[in-house]
Amino acid sequence: MIPTNRRSCPHPPRFGRGEGGKSGVRVVGSPSSIEQNLRRVEERIAEAALRAGRDPAAVTLVAVTKTFPPEVILEGYAAGLRHFGENRPEEGAEKIPIVNAAVPGPRPTWHLVGHIQSRKADQVVDCYDVVHSVDRPKIALRLNRLAVEAGREIPVLLECNISGEATKFGFAVDRWEEDAAQREAFFADCATILALPGLRVDGLMTVAPLTDDPEAVRPVFARLRALRDGLRERFPHLPWRELSMGMTDDFEVAVEEGATMVRIGRAIFGPRREKQ
User: Fold this and answer.
1) Has this prediction a pTM greater than 0.85?
2) What is the pLDDT of residue 52?
3) Domain residues for 263?
4) Residues 224-239: pLDDT tens digits?
C-alpha cells in the first residue's frame, strides 16, 4: 500500500487559473494518439504475459513523463494511466502538484525512476510515492533519515547494474553468480538497507543496455530475476515481489522474464520533448 502521510511538494503550480477552475491545464476527453498508443502498449504487455503463462494484471505500467508537460500527463490520465514516472526529482516536483490538483479522480501514483543526488533527496521524500533507484547505501541512509522525519515509510527498489556497463548506476552485481565476494558485498548492503525503518524494500530494478534486438537483453532480465530469487532465499522474511525492468524497446521480453513493473515513455507519448 502506498503511504499517504507524505508532505506535499513545496513547489507551487506555475500555470494560471483557467478553464475548469483548478488550473490552465485540462483533461482531454476525446480519443487521442496517446490513448491509441496506450491501448496498443497494454495489448502488447498482455500478449507477452500470456506467452509466459502470467496474469497480465500482475504487470504495472509506469508511464515515464520526462520532459512532458502537465497537460500531456493529464491526457494520459484521461486515457486510463494511473502510474507516472519521472527521471529527475526536480522536474517532477514542479509537475506533480499541478497534475494532482487537476485530475478529476484519485491522484496518480508517482514513481521516481532516475538517479538520485543526495542534495535532491528531500524532493524525493516530499513528492514521490515509490522510488525505483536506490543504488547505494549512502542514498538509502539519507532517504531514510528524511522519511523518518516526515513520518513516512517509502516503498523502494534497489537498482542493480546487472550488465556491468560503466555508464550505468546501480549496485555492482554483474558477476554475482560466480563472484562470491561481489555477491556477499551486495547482500551485506541489502542487510543494511533492510534495517532502515523509513524504507520498505519491495524488490529490484535494472536498466538494460540499449540494443536494436530485444532478445539480446533477455539474459539481463533473467539474471535480475535469478538475483531476486537469491535474495528471497537469503532474506526470506521479505516477499521481494517487484521487478522493475523493461522500457519501450524491450518491455515485452522483460514481461516474459518476470517484470512486475515496466517503465514506458516513448511508446505512449512519442519522442521526448526538448526543454524550452
Assistant:
1) yes
2) 98
3) 33-269
4) 999 999 999 999 999 9
Assess if residue 9 is contained within a domain: no
Cα angle vertex 141, ends 119, 174, to 5°? 95
Give the position of cell 500527463: 73
Provide φ and ψ at 168, rounded to 5°: -95, 145
CA dist 110 → 5, 46, 165, 192, 275 (Å): 14, 23, 28, 26, 21
Cα separation, 248 vs 266, whole angstroms: 6
Asked if 102 and 26 touch (Cβ cutoff 8 Å), the reply is yes
Report the domain count for the chain: 1
CATH at residue 108: 3.20.20.10
The answer to whether residue 19 sits within a structural domain is no
Note whether 165 and 209 are within 8 A (CB): yes
- In what helix (H) or strand (E) does residue 195 lie, and over which residues does it extend? none
In this structure, the chain runs to a length of 276
* pLDDT (tens digit per residue) in 41-84: 999 999 999 999 999 999 999 999 999 999 999 999 999 999 99
230-245 burial string, b = 16+ CB within 10 Å, else e? bbeeeeeeeebebbbb
In a domain, 130, yes or no: yes
Task: List the grid coordinates of 273.
Answer: 520533448
**Please, are residues 218 and 183 in contact by the beta-carbon 8 Å criterion?**
no
Phi-psi domain of 167 (left: phi exceeds 0; alpha: psi -120 through 50; beta: other) = alpha
249 φ/ψ angles, rounded to the nearest 5 degrees: -85, -10
Residue 25 inside a domain? The answer is no
115, with CB counted inside 10 A (0-12, 13-18, 19+), is middle
